[in-house]
Write a structure and sequence with these properties.
UDP N-Acetylglucosamine Acyltransferase, domain 1; about 30% strand; elongated; binds uridine-diphosphate-N-acetylglucosamine; binds calcium ion
């Protein structure tokens, strides 16, 4: 069924993921552990999809429901095939074929759910080799200094592949072979179906081995070829947490290198972690200790870092984000954020907007050019274009029972150290005096002052702090108490109050 040119029709990819993964010592199934922001199985499925199969099946058994739910979430089209109590990679493959449409024609690829660095291009290369050689089976192999544990590739006198022997079934002589079976194969679909029905379990592990298909294919006249890969990372599976970290670091090395080759400056790739699904525009600079996670998308000419963790966050062109934690946030073009800012879900900062130091935002829409520069909590807020929120402003959104919304209008100005006790609406072009506790509406053009009026008590220092350095300083400055000494005995019986003239006083 091979096409005359190029590769054969790819009927299906089967991803084996029924195994237990005991060495992870985890309540989480092995294939659901993550590197680069995706599960191991997610990486395997992405590579499988990149090969463009007509069908994709994943074989499950251990923690079946958890794994199946994850597959349904990341690839709803995938067929979930349940393996029965018969063990082995051959049985797993047979169960997948049983779950797929009958009579598949063309090529079937088999891969593993715990081999996360396998690239779609490698599967492409395998398919081309498979088609080009007209093989019944093509297997990806690798040469390892220490092949312990792997199936060994058996070659005939003229170098052609004649079969695979498992470590546990191998003779001393066979164990010396350093070419190993990666477990990734291309099969002719109908040959595979037929050969599997002949595979038994008469081996050291009592399992139905997929590897036995190679010898069966050969004995019925089929050709078996090997596709030797140099890049050993691509065939390495995860068995424990040490390998998880090792492969995680290598994946990250590859990801950061890909972005650098694509025009992104990464000052310190070793401390920069970029998830597989992140996108970054050209001429963006990433400074050390930065993590770009999940579906984060960074535009061009931006500067991110140092010390940022951005998760599922969108950053516009030319934005600058420094020492910031952001989650499900949108940072507009040429906006600036940080240092020490915490952007929680629902934060949307407009173009050229600013979120500054020690500011926390949540569900806050901050329009173009608006500024929240210092020491503020803005939760459940709408802040209009060009508005300025003074240092230390708190949007008090929670009354102990429910959350309420605050809206600050265009080009409005909230003075420092104000509390906006939601629900509050401040109109366009309004002011709030510093230190206010605002509980009601402020109309356009109005100035709200909601705090105690300043009063100055003459002679207080002389009466209460006589003889202190403060008193001496007051005397030197002409305010030692001469103009209105209070009664002896230190009672502030008749202090003289003066009104300070501050900003306009609110109507009573
Ligand atoms: C298998 C190969 C071996 C190869 C090695 C590469 C066989 C018989 N042996 O070894 O030649 O060098 O992979 O890693 O195929 N799985 C199932 N159902 C099962 C058993 C396994 O789905 O009943 C899945 C596992 O989840 C895993 C993959 O198949 O993803 C490989 O299983 P594993 O037990 O690691 O491989 P071995 O059989 O030791
Ligand atoms: Ca294994």
């Amino acid at each position: 069924m091979n096409a005359p040119h190029g590769r054969p029709r790819l009927a299906a990819v089967i991803v084996l993921a029924a195994g237990e993964g005991t060495r992870m010592k985890s309540a989480t199934p092995k294939v659901l552990h993550r590197i680069g922001g995706r599960t191991l199985l997610g990486h395997a499925i992405a590579a499988a999809r990149a090969a463009g199969p007509e069908h994709l099946a994943v074989v499950v058994r251990h923690e079946r429901d958890l794994v199946a739910a994850h597959i349904a979430e990341i690839d709803p089209e995938a067929v979930i095939a349940d393996q029965d109590e018969i063990k082995g990679t051959g049985r797993a493959t047979e169960c997948a074929l049983a779950a797929l449409p009958k009579g598949l024609e063309g090529t079937v690829l088999v891969t593993y759910g715990d081999v996360p660095l396998l690239a779609g291009e490698t599967l492409e290369a395998l398919l081309h080799e498979h088609a080009g050689t007209g093989s019944a089976v093509s297997v990806i192999t690798a040469r390892l200094d220490d092949p312990t544990g792997y199936g060994r590739i058996l070659r005939g006198p003229d170098g052609e592949v004649v079969g695979i022997v498992e470590q546990k079934d191998a003779s001393e002589e066979q164990r010396a072979i350093t070419e190993i079976n990666s477990g990734i194969y291309a099969f002719d679909a109908s040959m595979l179906q037929h050969a599997l029905s002949q595979v038994g379990t008469d081996n050291a592990q009592g399992e139905k081995y997929l590897t036995d298909v190679l010898a069966i294919a050969r004995s019925s006249g089929g050709r078996v070829s090997a596709h030797l890969v140099d890049d050993l990372w691509q065939t390495e599976g995860v068995n424990d947490r040490v390998q998880l970290a090792r492969l995680g670091r290598e994946l990250n090395r590859r990801t950061t290198e890909r972005w650098m080759r694509d025009g992104v400056t990464i000052v310190d790739p070793a401390t920069t972690w970029i998830d597989a699904d992140v996108t970054i525009g050209r001429d963006t600079t990433i400074l050390p200790n930065t993590q770009l996670l999940g579906a984060t998308a960074v535009g061009a000419d931006a500067t991110i870092g140092p010390d940022c963790t951005l998760t599922d966050t969108e950053v516009g062109d030319g934005a600058q984000v420094k020492r910031t934690e952001a989650q499900l946030a949108v940072i507009g073009p040429r906006a600036t954020v940080g240092p020490f800012s915490y952007l929680r879900p629902g934060t949307e900062l407009g173009a050229k907007g600013k979120i500054g130091g020690f500011v926390e935002t949540k569900n806050a829409k901050i329009a173009d050019g608006a500024k929240v520069p210092h020491l503020t909590y803005a939760g459940d807020a709408t802040i209009g274009e060009g508005a300025n929120i003074g240092a230390g402003t708190i949007f008090a959104n929670y009354d102990g029972v429910a959350k309420h919304h605050t809206s600050v209008g265009r080009y409005s100005f909230v003075g420092s150290d104000s509390v906006l006790i939601a629900p509050v609406t401040i109109a366009d072009g309004a002011y709030v005096a510093a230190g206010s506790a605002v509980t009601g509406e402020v109309g356009p053009g109005q100035m709200a002052v909601a705090r105690g009026r300043q009063r100055n008590v003459d002679g207080w220092v002389a009466a209460k702090r006589a003889g202190t350095k403060t008193h001496l300083a007051a005397e030197a400055a002409g305010g030692g108490g001469e103009s209105g000494p209070p009664e002896a005995g230190g009672q502030d019986a008749s202090p003289r109050h003066t009104q300070a003239s501050t900003e306009g006083q609110a109507q009573a």
